[in-house]
Each structure stands twice: as C-alpha cells, then as structure tokens.
Amino acid sequence: MPVVFLHAGLAHGTLAGFAVWAVLMGVTSGATGIGGVGLTPMMLVLGVSAQDAMRAALAAYTVSSAVGAALYWRAGVLRHIRWTAAALCLGVVPGSVAACFVVQISDASALAAGCSAVAIVSGCKTVARHVLDHRKKAADPAGSGTTAAAKAGDCEMVLKRGDATPPVPPVAQQQDPGEEPVGDPPEQPPHLYSRTRAALLFAIGLATGFFSGMTATGGPFVLTPLLFAYTDEIAAVQVVALGLTLSVVIGLSSAIANVLRTEVDLGLALVIALAMSVGMPLGVRVGTRMNQQTLRLLIALLMVGIGLGSLLNTA
User: Fold this and answer.
1) How far apart are CA 297 and CA 284, in angstroms?
2) Which candidate, 64, 56, 98, 108, places its Cα nearest to that of 207?
3) Which residue, 229, 279, 312, is CA-closest to 36?
4) At 12, is the pLDDT very low, low, confident or very high (cuts 50, 70, 90)?
C-alpha cells in the first residue's frame, strides 16, 4: 500500500509536541530557508524509522515550502531572477527523482556528512567575508569601497519598495552619437546569465535535488552554501526564496516517486506540512524585513551550527 496514516504510532501528546516543534521550524525556514533540516532528527528521537521520517518530511516540504515561496514571490523578491529559478528547478527534478531510487542502496549518512562539510566550509567563508566587509566599511566610512554584500542590501531595498525595474548600475559618462564609449561599461544585472552560467545553475540544481533527496533536508540546506560560494550578486533573501521554491519541486518530485514505489506516511506528512505552514508567514515577514548582511550572516552561522551537529551525529 503506497500511503499509510500515522504508521509510526506516536502518542497524541508526543504528536502535539512535535507539531509545536514543526511550527518553530516553519518560522526558521521562512526566515532563513534551512529550518526544515531539524525535522528528521527530531522524528528519529521520537522513534520514527529513518525511511518513514525522510519520506514524510520530503512530502511535507511540498506544502509548507509552497506557502513560503508564494509569499516571497508575491513580495516581488524573485521578480528579477526568474531565469535563475527556472534553471535551478530544471536541474532539481531529475536529481530528486534519482535520489529516490539511489537512497535504498547507498549510505545516506556518508552523503549527509559530505553535505554538512560543504555547509560548514561555505558558512565559515561567508562569516569571514562578512568580517572583512565590516572592516572595509569601518576603514572607508565614505563608502567608496562598496562591497558585493552592500550591493545586495541595496537591491533588496528596491525589491521591498516594489519597483517595477531592477536597480540600474551607474552608467558611463555621456557621449555624443558615434563616439567610442567613455569609462567602464555598465555592470550586468544579476538576472542576465550566459549559457555557461545557466549550465552551472542547472548543475547546482541537479546536485541540490539529488543530495536533498538523499538526506531529506528539503533543498535550502544544500542550495544555500552552493549559491553563497557561487555568487554574491544574489541577495540573502533571494537565496532563501529560491531555496523554498526548489523545496516545492523537490518535495513534489520525491513524493510522486516514493508513492509509486514505496509507502509514505500521509498522516505524519500532513502534521508536518500544516504545522510548518502556520509558522512560515512569520518567518517570511522576518526575512523580508531583516538587513541583508545580517540575514546572510545568520544563515551562515546556522549552516555552521547545523553542519557541526550533523557531523557529530554521524560520527
């Protein structure tokens, strides 16, 4: 039977307590994108089998992440990077489907350790970059050395105002018709990508779908360190919104593949989905109002902390 209902047999009190925990994870996911990674370990503590916990969590991400992603899309956070989202989603689908078949014959703990190591390295790199940017800003209070992180913050200010056009970089000096351009060419906005960058984004999506499906982390825990390492052009809140968008695709693809070949605890998945959906709007509100450099630093610290905790559990 492909679908069961509360197969784990959790007591009502235990299930209610777990629902409260899932609400908190929904708030964290809405603000930083990586709160869902705390669900599977908690289910293991409560006695749910690893396979049941992973399948229920992935199915639940479809609903809860859809709530968060819809709120971010409605706020216009992804308005100027739609092609980025499309390239990532195209890679996520085959990756997540492949993970559903490979997870039965591979050591998921080793993959989880690898993902945790990537998250730790990327988080430490982001923290170090934040410290260097802060020192540069202190040494140059006039702002002549504007950093990429600062540009991301300016971009988010435009998005929150709801402007119909992306921020335009300073243009070169005015020239008469027919003259050669004077000064540096204008910087390309972050939503314009070459075929090479589109292929790289597809590869990032493929890796995100596969490793997220193998470790039941939902997507952002794998995607965020990869994007942080790939570029500074995308604001932190946009990374969060992209992670939630990919979680919808990962959860849906994994749920369909799992239902066709194995059992999914629909009751447990519904509890997780509804509880996280309750906390998601508050998290999105926090994420869209927080300073972007601060949000990026908070996400980096969470990646390091969760990554270290995951490595200790698998050791």
Assistant:
1) 17
2) 98
3) 279
4) confident
